[in-house]
């Protein structure tokens, strides 16, 4: 079975500050070490659970955070910017499972380093009326290809946020957010043990896990921080009212692509 790993960074045990997530610097180097250890734990677990082939898509910031030669399991590494499917680039219907590693809560959640794609622009996203973090948004791509999302790792907020969109998802909590910039983390070795075991369990039951489904019509509402951002976002599709845009469509992939294009576009709007 082919397994797709979407790797973020803010949800990794020991990470509590943007400095650990942004190059350059010693804090970032420390963050990368913690990150690659958890990714490798997930790869080891996936292999034990029946994976035969693994693709790691780097989904954080500049999207080249991992030392390529350090990935276990001879996993392929999809890195770098300008990826049309962004955090889910590389996924297609040849895969049997998606793993989310190092994920974080949505903007507005009680999670550490919480945000939804862009903390400077996106205030809240709802899919079908339910608040969605990146786990829910990225599930649109998994739904399009019919691939179950079987694992999410991060703080205590990521499991409950993913659950409404990813049936049967296994959640591994590696830290407890105390505030947006404080968390109590497991020791990295313990965190890796839990990630490994969770990945093994999740991949082993992937064939019996349903892919996300959004019904006949997907409705994604985005509350932007400013009306300017909302107006600009709607240039590429959807309707706008005040600070809220609404994207509606039958194809979850097209809806996702409109959303990520909106996010890219709004990076250019002054706050
Ligand atoms: Zn990130």
From TrEMBL:
MF (Gene Ontology): metal ion binding
Residues annotated as the enzyme's active site: 115 (nucleophile)
Cross-referenced InterPro entries: DppA_N, Peptidase_M55, Peptidase_M55_sf
Positions of Zn(2+) 2 binding: 8, 60, 104, 134
Entry keyword Zinc: yes
Keyword annotations from UniProtKB, A to Z: Metal-binding, Zinc
Keyword Zinc set for record: yes
Residues involved in Zn(2+) 1 binding: 8, 10
Domain of life: Bacteria
Listed name of the protein: M55 family metallopeptidase
Organism listed in the record: Nocardioides islandensis
């Amino acid at each position: 079975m082919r397994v797709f790993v979407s790797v973020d960074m803010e949800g990794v045990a020991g990470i509590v500050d943007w400095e650990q997530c942004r190059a350059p610097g010693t804090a970032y180097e420390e963050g990368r070490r913690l990150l690659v250890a958890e990714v490798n734990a997930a790869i080891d677990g996936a292999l034990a659970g029946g994976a035969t082939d693994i693709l790691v898509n780097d989904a954080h910031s500049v999207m080249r955070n991992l030392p390529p030669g350090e990935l276990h399991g001879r996993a392929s590494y999809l890195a770098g910017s300008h990826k049309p499917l962004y955090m889910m680039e590389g996924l297609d219907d040849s895969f049997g499972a998606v793993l989310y590693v190092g994920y974080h809560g949505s903007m507005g959640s009680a999670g550490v380093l919480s945000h939804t794609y862009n903390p400077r622009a996106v205030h809240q996203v709802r899919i079908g009326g339910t608040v969605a973090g990146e786990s829910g948004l990225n599930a649109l791509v998994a739904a399009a290809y019919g691939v179950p999302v079987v694992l999410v790792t991060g703080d205590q907020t990521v499991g409950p946020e993913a659950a409404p969109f990813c049936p049967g998802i296994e959640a591994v909590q590696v830290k407890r957010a105390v505030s947006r910039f404080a968390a109590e983390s497991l020791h990295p070795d313990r965190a890796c043990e839990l990630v490994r075991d969770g990945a093994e369990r999740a991949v082993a039951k992937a064939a019996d896990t349903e892919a996300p489904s959004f019904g006949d019509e997907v409705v994604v509402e985005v509350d932007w921080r400013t009306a300017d951002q909302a107006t600009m976002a709607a240039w590429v599709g959807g309707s706008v009212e005040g600070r809220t845009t609404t994207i509606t469509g039958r194809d979850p992939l097209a809806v996702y692509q409109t959303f990520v294009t909106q996010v890219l576009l709004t990076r250019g709007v002054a706050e």
